[in-house]
Specification:
The protein is mainly α and 342 residues long. 79% of the residues lie in helices and 2% in strands. A hairpin with a 6-residue loop joins strand 1 and strand 2. The longest helix has 58 residues. GO terms for molecular function: G protein-coupled receptor activity.
Length: 342
């Protein structure tokens, strides 16, 4: 059956947005791949998160491009089941890596636990294995024909959340558990991280106030001019001590300003990461829960909106990674410099 006008625009918008996400995630992966063993734990997990996002986007973009190229809304059912299994595997991997990354930061910052250096590599292997099992579970139980199908928008192949057979229900509950668990941990952990950061800054400010530091002192300790220091050499020891105390107070005030800036930056980062994740995954999660409990598909329009929300999140996430992960940003800049010879 030929593609109608509405689906033509849906396929075009989805494919174009996915292509942007594919390029951004691929750039981060290719720029950091040669140095992956040297990446710090947090960046290591982010690298694999972008890798699985790249694979998920590549898997999803094939279907609309095929339909646009052949001007048909029909797709081979067996290939659709394979796409559905890959979609579950890659997306569950991304969600679990997001969970692991959040847990890692929470343990280190909030509880100050020294996480073993092998944790990222071991956790990534665990994630890959578990996700592969979840994606292939319907095939193992010989129920794949019921589990994976096109969504209401006819845009992509994914689990059919309305099915109630054993294989479908297992995949559904596993996917829901991982998605909801990641969402709840993300909100709780970054909230706790922000609270701890605010408490540290507050305690530091108290220590400065208790030491009698003048809050109005200049933030730059180097603001004491060389001429003032030279004059202090010929003055009394008390005047010289006053100059030194002024420099010390300026250094403490600058440290306070730096901590305030770090707190503000951490709050901004936490809000952006949590908001992006919620906006990206919540519509699809709500759709899946609705279809599972009502055994009725949502409208094609809402299905398109839910799938586009995840696709847009896949575009935004590498931008967030580039902005807030210093090591990945450094390697990306090195790659850009090598490409453009600057």
């Amino acid at each position: 059956m030929p593609v109608d006008k509405l689906h033509y625009w849906w396929y075009t918008v989805f494919a174009a947005t996915a292509a942007i996400g594919l390029m951004l995630n691929s750039f981060i992966v290719l720029s950091n791949a040669p140095y992956v063993k040297k990446l710090p734990p947090s960046s290591f997990l982010i690298f694999w998160l972008c890798t699985f996002d790249t694979l998920a986007i590549l898997n999803n973009i094939i279907e609309p491009i095929h339909m646009l190229a052949h001007n048909t809304s029909e797709y081979n059912s067996l290939i659709c089941q394979i796409h559905g299994a890959f979609a579950v595997t890659f997306n569950i991997s991304s969600l679990q890596l997001c969970f692991g990354l959040t847990l890692f930061r929470y343990l280190v910052i909030v509880h100050q636990i020294q996480v073993p250096r092998v944790f990222p590599a071991v956790y990534t292997c665990y994630v890959t294995l578990i996700s592969l099992v979840v994606g292939l579970l319907p095939f193992m139980l010989s129920s794949q024909r019921f589990t994976y199908d096109f969504g209401a928008s006819n845009l992509y192949c994914a689990p059919d959340w309305t099915q109630q057979d054993t294989g479908s229900m297992l995949v559904t509950w596993l996917c829901f558990s991982i998605a909801v668990g990641t969402l709840l941990l993300l909100v709780y952990a970054y909230g706790a991280i922000f609270i701890v950061s605010a408490r540290v800054v507050k305690e530091f400010q108290k220590s400065l106030d208790g030491a009698g530091v003048d809050n109005t002192v200049q933030l730059n300790p180097c603001a004491v001019s060389a001429s003032n220091l030279n004059r202090s050499r010929s003055n009394s020891p008390s005047k010289t001590a006053a100059v030194v105390m002024n420099v010390s107070a300026g250094a403490d005030a600058q440290k306070r300003a730096e901590l305030d800036a770090q707190q503000s930056e951490l709050m901004k980062q936490s809000l952006i990461m949590v908001t992006a994740f919620l906006l990206g995954w919540s519509p699809y999660l709500i759709m899946g829960i609705y279809e599972f409990f009502t055994q009725t598909q949502v409208s094609p329009e809402f299905d398109f909106f839910a799938s586009m929300s995840i696709t847009i999140y896949d575009v935004i996430n590498p931008v967030i990674v580039y902005i807030y992960d210093r090591e990945i940003r450094r390697l990306c800049r090195r790659a850009l410099s090598a490409m453009f010879g600057s």
